[in-house]
């Protein structure tokens, strides 16, 4: 091993006091400690350390610079330190270099954010121990299409994008799924984002007989469409994507607007105890805090099962159910989440709450 590479990163060690894992183990959290992603890295570290204190794991913190070529040195240090699981990995650049070395040591890596399909494809081809807790690139569109196929058959609906690459690709994936099943939109269009009003768009929708709209757009643009439809006395059922989980300004979102979005994990009954623990420590359970907490719980359970069954931890992580603060987690043989985490929700005027149907 090249000792110079080990000098290129620094870490600090935090020892948990409660021992509940079948054998002594250290997990590593790889996340930015400075730079543009420092806040997200802090959320991950807070969640990991809070959970580790409950399950009895030691935690090693390693800075993730997100620079090309940085993952090799990190992986060398992880192996030398004999960590059992690695959590975090906000950046694909880190994963690409780290995974071959982690494979040799049978150390699973759990990414909380990377959705790049190429990294997962390479992992499956090469036997890299990468597991993805982040939703896949197609999870949002799949959930949207599933609901529309279930609830919007026989209805006149529109598909709107805002011209961005993300929005267009999201709509294209939804449309492809719908058309495979024989369901075609009545109206498609690219709206002009960041406008003060969308009255002309709303009127066009009305003239075509559209009653239901999926809009892949930012929250404020959807808010303006909803406001102008109400002002024109045009009844529209509006469905947006995860982008609707944003600040409710400058135009407030109207009650009844639907979103296919990730849930607010802090509101789940399974998270009650952890949320109380975090807030007692003056940590708000925002962003990656609870997913990182869940990844740590999952790691402790996997390590205990691996010790009991004398199996490599990566093998244990496939197909087993792990109980966490964000609900049960199962990884498929493709190392992805078995259950799509996106949920249909309706805006009440103050918050999004889960609903069963996409028809008001």
Molecular structure report:
This protein is of the alpha/beta class and 360 residues long. It has two domains: 3-135 and 267-327, Rossmann fold; 139-261 and 342-354, Rossmann fold (3-Layer(aba) Sandwich). The protein contains twelve helices and 15 strands. The strands form three sheets. It has a seven-stranded mixed beta sheet, sandwiched between helices. Helix 2 (38-55) crosses helix 11, helix 3 (71-80) runs parallel beside helix 4 and helix 6 (139-151) crosses helix 7 (165-180). The radius of gyration is 22 Å and the shape is elongated. 46% of the residues are buried. Mean pLDDT is 92; it is low at 1-23.
List keywords for this structure.
Rossmann fold, 12 helices, elongated, 15 strands, disordered N terminus, 360 residues, single chain, seven-stranded mixed beta sheet, 39% helix, six-stranded mixed beta sheet, 2 domains, alpha/beta
How many E-type strands?
15
- Number of discrete helical segments: 12
Helix-strand pattern? HEEHEHEHEHEHEHEHEHEEHHHEEEE
Helical/strand content category: alpha/beta
Tell the overall outline.
elongated
Low-pLDDT segments:
1-23
- The top-level CATH class of the largest domain is Alpha Beta
Radius of gyration: 22 Å
Q: The CATH topology of the largest domain is what?
A: Rossmann fold
What is the level-2 CATH architecture name of the largest domain?
A: 3-Layer(aba) Sandwich
